[in-house]
Specification:
Helix content is 36%, strand content 25%. The chain is α+β, with helices and mostly antiparallel strands. The strands form six sheets. Strands 4, 18, 23, 24, 25, 26, 27 and 28 form an eight-stranded mixed beta sheet that branches. Strands 5-6-8-7-9 form a five-stranded mixed beta sheet. It has a five-stranded mixed β-barrel with strand order 11-12-14-17-16. Helix 1 runs antiparallel to helix 2 (39-54), helix 2 (39-54) runs parallel beside helix 11 (299-317) and helix 7 runs antiparallel to helix 8.
Length: 683
């Protein structure tokens, strides 16, 4: 959970940094355009960049520069170039990667299958590198500040917040809540007056706070070279604008003396940390040139600069505008638009031109009566029975299940959920893998092509707001051929269920210990103890597997029982390249109705959570089209996992088995022989 939060934060920072990569070059160009205007205008422009770097949300408008450059549309006030859902898989169970040999090529164990490579997510690696960079910069800044504080121990208080130190070579402001001005003891007379004024202007404008915020933004975006450029250029404009403020206050007569002080008190380097604000820091030559060339700006120049700054701030701060459902054509064009704008994503079409569905109108009236739309999208899995012929498509007959397993809608629009419509800027994805989640973003037209098979029910995972679908992901592109990714879902502890049914002494009274072994199948310390029991609590013969950690605590349990004459449930232990795993398999085979095979490969977390490696299901019968090449591809990983595992418990056609044997020869392409069976059925 902590890793997922870190990854989501990292992806959020990446999205903000990508926006800054557009904004910073524009600000640099505008800064050049304003080179003859007072530097305070260039300095103000950098506030736009700072806002973009530290604030993930902004307002949306039609005049957004990002919208003109076709940046992604706003989602909850944020621009997402990189989808958090794509980078951090939001599955009911966690997917783990396991090293395996390539069963397609029949290679050695050093080869890998695409679905189970020994890889750590690039987002995970990147997030930890990102945190390491932040810590390095913060440690550097703290060390610099501690060193400076030691140096200032002998400073003498002169008055107010002004201190004099014998060992200083340049004046500076130090402190956040209570900023203090430190001056070298050698300063005196008029030179001391205008240098002191320079530091006081910094404090009055809050430059010490701005610089600290800028440094924190730099820490968050340290990997972005444009942010480093922005940090240094904004610091330069801060100092130049402060120099100009001193000249305006004290008169142009001090320009030469002020320039001489800049040269004498130059630090010769930039101070990267958020503190202090040093008088002689940075581009001394540029500042001297700017001071000597400073003239009182004309009123027309000031007015023009104000207009440029205001316009630039508006177009740079605005996100791409959310598209209202009342605007323009739909996804496929040429349709009448009705309804309100959705808070999350764009509202879609509820009817063809000249046609309005009564249920649609009722839904809109409810929305109007209910006030504002939801801020956060709901999510669930749709089993689609029917798509309307409206453009864009509307789902009018379906079953919908929330992610927590609660059925909230079944076959229509019960429980207040009306027909679902796809948003105009809906994100469409399809899973191209048979045994893991590997979503690929596709167009609306491509997505709909996957849903056009007649008399078939499809499953898609959706996020929606007030009946408007803002993200849709087809769980398997092979679904019409009976193949789909299968998540391992735990409905609670089988062991706990048996205790509730048969009492706390259930194991002693009804079960017999049939086998025990130690195996590394979890992320807890040491090997796990696996106990296999067989028995009957009065509901038919059953088998139970308990997975305990090194201290004997129960992590997880698997139960098999006689639930159908033609059904088999197996549990295996396996190891590939030193990584242990658990595997369960369900086999249903009926001469009349067809077959239903499924398997899950997984490990356990230290807390007993399922860490899924792979999982897939294959069905063949009256409702699915059999494709032999696809079945051959589907069964090869299954056979490979079986080759690297042994059975520990099985219930097959009324028989419990606990012998530790390999069953790779029992479940492979040749043995299952679906091709010949399919041909026989067609004859």
């Amino acid at each position: 959970m902590h890793t997922q939060m870190l990854e989501k934060c990292f992806v959020g920072i990446l999205n903000m940094s990508l926006t800054a990569c557009i904004i910073i070059p524009v600000v640099i160009a505008l800064r050049f355009l304003l080179r003859k205007a007072p530097k305070i205008f260039s300095y103000i422009l950098w506030a736009v960049v700072l806002f973009r770097l530290i604030c993930p949300v902004s307002f949306s408008a039609a005049f957004s520069l990002l919208g003109a450059l076709d940046a992604p549309k706003t989602e909850r006030g944020q621009i997402s170039y990189i989808s958090v859902d794509a980078a951090v898989i939001p599955a009911d169970t966690k997917d783990l990667q396991l090293p395996v040999a390539n069963p397609v090529q029949g290679g050695a164990a050093s080869e890998k299958t695409p679905a189970a490579e020994p890889m750590v997510s690039a987002v995970t690696i990147g997030s930890w590198i990102w945190i390491a960079g932040i810590l390095a910069l913060l440690i550097y800044s703290v060390a610099t500040l501690v060193k400076l504080k030691r140096k200032l121990k002998g400073a003498k208080h002169e008055r107010d917040n002004i201190y004099i130190a014998e060992n200083l070579t340049t004046p500076f402001v130090c402190g956040f809540l209570v900023p203090k001005i430190y001056l070298p003891a050698a300063l005196a007379g008029e030179e001391k007056a205008y240098i002191l004024l320079h530091e006081q202007i910094h404090i009055r404008r809050g430059d010490h706070i701005v610089k600290l915020l800028g440094y924190l933004a730099l820490c968050l975006h340290w990997f972005n070279p444009l942010v480093w450029a922005a940090f240094f250029l904004s610091g330069r404009d801060m100092e130049m604008s402060c120099d100009e403020a001193v000249i305006r206050k004290m008169g142009v007569g001090v320009k030469k003396e002020y320039s001489a002080s800049l040269l004498n008190l130059a630090t010769g380097r930039r101070i990267i940390g958020g503190v202090p604000l040093a008088f002689g820091e940075g581009d001394t030559g540029g500042r001297i040139k700017n001071v000597l060339g400073y003239k009182k700006p004309a009123a027309a120049l000031i007015c023009a600069a104000v207009i440029v700054i205001a316009a630039a701030a508006a177009v740079l701060l605005a996100n791409p505008r959310k598209i209202s459902a009342s605007e323009g054509a739909g996804l496929t064009g040429g349709v009448k638009q009705t309804g309100k704008e959705a808070t999350y994503g764009a509202g879609g079409e509820y009817g063809d031109a000249g046609q309005e569905n009564e249920a649609d109108n009722a839904g809109q009236e409810d929305a109007e009566a209910g006030g504002s739309l939801q801020e956060e999208p709901e999510s669930g899995t749709l089993e689609i029975r029917m798509l309307s012929e409206k453009e864009p498509k509307t789902i009018t007959a379906y079953a919908l299940q929330k992610d927590d397993g609660e059925w909230i809608v079944y076959n229509g629009w019960e429980d207040g959920i009306g027909p679902l419509v796809f948003a105009q800027d809906c994100v469409y994805k399809v899973n191209t893998s048979m045994e893991t989640i590997d979503y690929e973003e596709v167009s609306y037209e491509e997505f709909m092509d996957f849903l056009e098979t007649e008399d078939f029910r499809f499953s898609i995972r959706i996020a929606f707001v007030d009946n408007v679908i803002v993200e849709a992901a087809k769980i398997s592109i092979y679904e019409e051929y009976g193949i789909s990714y299968a998540a391992k879902i735990s409905y609670g502890s089988a062991y706990q269920y048996l205790l509730e049914v048969a009492g706390d002494d259930m194991l002693e009274q009804y079960y017999t210990l049939a086998g025990m072994e130690t195996f590394d199948v979890a992320d807890s310390d040491g090997d796990e103890q696996i106990e296999v029991y067989t028995g009957d609590i009065g509901e038919g013969e059953s088998g139970l597997v308990l997975f305990r950690n090194a201290d004997g605590s129960l992590l997880y349990s698997e139960l098999v029982y006689d639930n159908h004459l033609n059904s088999r449930d197996n549990v295996y232990l396996g190891e590939i390249d030193g990584t242990g795993f658990i595997m369960d398999m369900h086999i249903y085979d009926d001469a009349l109705f067809g077959v239903d095979y499924s398997y899950h490969v997984y490990r356990l977390s230290a807390e007993g959570e399922i860490l899924q490696i792979a999982g897939s299901g294959f069905a063949w019968g009256p409702y699915w089209e059999y494709q032999d090449e696809l079945f051959k591809e589907w069964v090869e990983p299954l056979t490979y996992y079986l080759e690297h595992s042994h059975l520990i418990l099985s219930h097959q056609v009324g028989e419990l088995r606990t012998e530790q044997v390999s069953e790779a020869d029992k479940y492979n392409y040749e043995t299952l022989n679906l091709k010949d069976r399919s041909l026989e059925r067609m004859q």
